[in-house]
Amino acid sequence: MQYVNCIEGLLEVLLSREAPAEVAGPCWHCDSSDLAVWRCKDCALPTPMCRHCTRSYHGSNPFHRIKCWTGSYFRLANLWEVGSYILIRHYDGEPLCDSLKCQIKSLESMEVVKDKAEQNRLMALAP
């Protein structure tokens, strides 16, 4: 019964998690002007992020669950959609062998192209 008086506030908070206050605003995690349409359900502060920051921040959290803003709601998404991967390192005294460094560089260069394509698409949709 103690929650009856607070029900309006609780519902408002729950609904505020389903739509961003500012639709497709700038990323809160980087200095770029990239639009942020991704957010994580498992991070402590699920602030909107751009595709690049979502990938970067979840390199060590590959099992977090993310969502993507569609224009009217957040749809469930997967980290592979932002280019995240699980890196299995060699433990031979070197943190990263030259082969893994080359693979990481190649993967990231491909993802940067996808980041730019997403931003171009979002800018075209923006009013």
Kindly describe this structure.
The protein is mainly alpha-helical and 127 residues long. The chain has one domain (4-125). Helices cover 35% and strands 9% of the residues. The protein has helices at residues 7-16, 51-57, 98-125, and strands at residues 38-40, 66-69, 74-77. A 3-stranded antiparallel sheet has the order 1-2-3, with no helix packed on it. Strand 2 (66-69) and strand 3 form a beta hairpin. It is flat and about 60 Å long. The model has no long low-confidence stretch (mean pLDDT 85).
Topology:
Blueprint: H1 7-16, E1 38-40, H2 51-57, E2 66-69, E3 74-77, H3 98-125
Antiparallel strand pairs: 1-2, 2-3
Number of helices: 3
Q: Level of helix content?
A: 25-40%
> How many β-strands, per DSSP?
3
Shape: flat
C-alpha termini separation: 45 Å
Write out the strand line-up for the largest beta sheet, numbering strands in chain order: 1-2-3
Q: Estimate nothing, just give the exact number of structural domains.
A: 1
Q: Which class do the helix and strand fractions yield?
A: mainly alpha
Largest sheet: 3 strands, antiparallel
Q: Spans of 5+ residues with little confidence (pLDDT < 50)?
A: none
Mean pLDDT: 85
**Measured on Cα atoms, how large is the radius of gyration?**
18 Å
**What is the string of helix and strand elements?**
HEHEEH
